Amino acid sequence: MLDIRARKRVTKLADPIARFAARLGLGPTAITLVGFLLAVTGAVLIGLGYLAVGAGIIGAGALLDILDGVLARLTQSETQRGALLDTFTDRLGEVAAWTGVAYYVGDLAEPALVTLSLIAVCGSLLVPFLRSKAEQLGVDGKGGLMGRAERLIVLIFGVGLEDFGLHTLEPAIWIFVALVWFTVLQRFVRTWKQLE
User: Fold this and answer.
1) Is pLDDT at 22 greater than 80 in this prediction?
2) Residues 114, 173: contact at Cβ < 8 Å?
3) Ordered DSSP codes for the chain
4) Which of 7, 52, 61, 127 could cross-link 163 (Cys pair, CB 3.0–4.6 Å)?
5) Do 14 and 70 contact (CB within 8 A), yes or no?
């Protein structure tokens, strides 16, 4: 939902930063790869128990993920390879983040939360898959409660605030699982109906 509603506003905010990056000679591929490296670094830190720092670094990587697309449009360097790389690194970043969470809760001897982390990442991967499949079939695949922005917000705040003694991690995992799988169902049903 946020992806759809906030895209124009975020693009306007990112535009001057993208222009500056272009003047520095940075390309969208470099921005994508740095964002991905930040996501993996944040995931490793979460796994090691540095929850707030790890979540913050994942958030910084997500901001760069916005910037790469704006930079590609601005410099007229949008390519199919760039789009593939962006999508691929987004999914790998999500897998890394949830692997970090699973490792952390596993270290706390919380097998139920490890299982929920696996269920969360599976749902997280199915949401964009259903959009892609719908668009491949010629129908609209967007929509639902948990787009990429919402998934990142729940993950980042749920993990990061735990470090401040707020006990947000377990509720965030439960909320994430419930909402992401509801979104999977929403997208499936919406696509199914459009194919009638």
Assistant:
1) no
2) no
3) -HHHHHHHHHHHHHHHHHHHHHHTT--HHHHHHHHHHHHHHHHHHHHTT-HHHHHHHHHHHHHHHHHHHHHHHHTT---HHHHHHHHHHHHHHHHHHHHHHHHHHHHTT-HHHHHHHHHHHHHHHHHHHHHHHHHHTTS----SS--HHHHHHHHHHHHHGGGGT---HHHHHHHHHHHHHHHHHHHHHHHHHHT-
4) 52
5) yes
Q: 88: domain range?
A: 2-194
Active site positions, annotated: 90
d(CA 133, CA 129): 6
Half-sphere exposure of 58 (CA within 13 A, CB side): 35
Cα Rg of the chain, angstroms: 17
- Number of domains the chain is built from: 1
CATH code, 71: 1.20.120.1760
Nearest partner of 39 among 64, 51, 57, 66, judged by Cα: 57
Tens of pLDDT, residues 60-108: 999 888 888 888 888 888 889 998 999 999 999 999 999 999 999 998 8
CB count within 10 Å of CB 34 equals 17
CA distance 1 to 98: 22
